[in-house]
Design goal:
By secondary structure, the chain is an alpha+beta fold. 26% of the residues lie in helices and 30% in strands. It has one domain: 2-Layer Sandwich (GTP Cyclohydrolase I, domain 2). It has 3 helices and 4 strands, in the order αββααββ. It has a 4-stranded antiparallel β-sheet, covered by helices on one side.
């Protein structure tokens, strides 16, 4: 009974998910010589789980949530002078930026598509999910 009760309580926890999709960002990344000297276009999407307020009413201030601009800045504001060998490192940097900026961020999912290597419009890339530790 105790185990089932815990599972039900966990399933009923409130969750607020903020999303920003399909930002196109030029990032220094790659391992091949043709990739290492110029920024590559990446399509970045974010989903951020945030600890929600107890209630949202018509006059609830922005401080009860998080500005989408913060998510956009985390993805688009990557350091211009850093070469990320792997796009996994780009995703990790975005996750850490969001965790450091707001204690209410519970988890971050970053999806990155490498636009330069698409030959027929396919989406080639990674998805990384990190949880606050």
């Amino acid at each position: 009974m105790g185990r089932a009760t815990f599972a039900n309580e966990e399933a009923l926890q409130d969750r607020l998910q903020l999303e920003v999709h399909d930002l196109e960002v030029n990032v220094l990344t790659g391992i091949y010589s043709e990739e290492t000297h110029l920024p590559q276009p990446l399509r970045i999407s974010l989903s951020v789980d945030l600890m929600p307020a107890e209630h949202y009413g018509p006059d609830t201030p922005l401080s009860a949530s998080k500005s989408y601009i913060d998510l956009r800045k985390a993805a688009a504001g990557l350091p211009k002078d850093v070469h990320f060998t792997l796009i996994e490192a780009v995703a990790d940097h975005i996750c850490e930026t969001l965790f450091v900026s707001d204690r209410r961020v519970l988890s971050v999912t970053v999806r990155i598509v490498k636009l330069a290597i698409s030959e027929s419009g396919e989406a080639i890339g990674i998805t990384l999910t990190r949880h606050r530790r």
